[in-house]
Amino acid sequence: MEIQIKLPADPSGFLRRECPTCQREFKWFVGATSNRPDAFLDPPTYFCPYCGVPSPRDTWWTPAQLEFSRQAAAGPIMQHVQEGLERTFGRGRTRLSGISEFPNPVVDPDDMVMVEPPCHSFEPLKIVEEWDDVLHCLLCGYRFKV
């Protein structure tokens, strides 16, 4: 069973992320920008723009995104279990309670400031406005200042 859950990007096309090391939030661009090389492959790890620590692609979820995903998956999972029980024991003989509705969608405001790393300008990101320290490129970890 596969459940696909779509998390919304902000109006500019950026998705909120949280560093698994320093827990700071930033945003990376969803999809490909117009100047992204056709042959470019996403790396298996990304670097935090703040602390520079690399981490696998699937570790950058915010707590709100994880909670939304849990809630969104609960209904389809319970429905799948219910259908299995009905196939095994017959329709109406066993009924699960607690099959939930789809949660309210996560709304991500168009906040933060967009920056482009000099090494990979096709991979822009958004950082908190008050950040005035060195940044790191998401793709290669290159240190730069804006």
How many individual domains?
1
User: What's the β-strand tally?
Assistant: 8
Rounded average pLDDT: 86
Global shape: elongated
Helical coverage, percent range? 10-25%
| Assembly status | single chain
- Taking all Cα atoms into account, the compactness measure Rg is 20 Å
N/C terminus separation? 45 Å
| Poorly predicted sequence stretches spanning 5 or more consecutive residues | none
Strand order of the largest sheet: 1-2-6-5
What is the tally of helical segments? 1
Largest sheet: 4 strands, antiparallel
What does this structure look like?
The chain has one helix and eight strands, in the order E-E-E-E-H-E-E-E-E. It is of the alpha+beta class and 146 residues long. It has one domain. Strands 1-2-6-5 form a four-stranded antiparallel beta sheet, with no helix packed on it. It has a two-stranded antiparallel ribbon with strand order 3-4. The mean pLDDT is 86.
Task: Describe the secondary-structure layout.
Layout: E1 14-18, E2 25-29, E3 45-47, E4 54-56, H1 63-89, E5 113-115, E6 125-127, E7 135-136, E8 143-144
Antiparallel strand pairs: 1-2, 2-6, 3-4, 5-6, 7-8
Concise structural overview:
18% of the residues lie in helices and 18% in strands.
Keywords, separated by commas or semicolons:
single chain; 146 residues; four-stranded antiparallel sheet; two-stranded antiparallel sheet; 1 helix; 8 strands; elongated
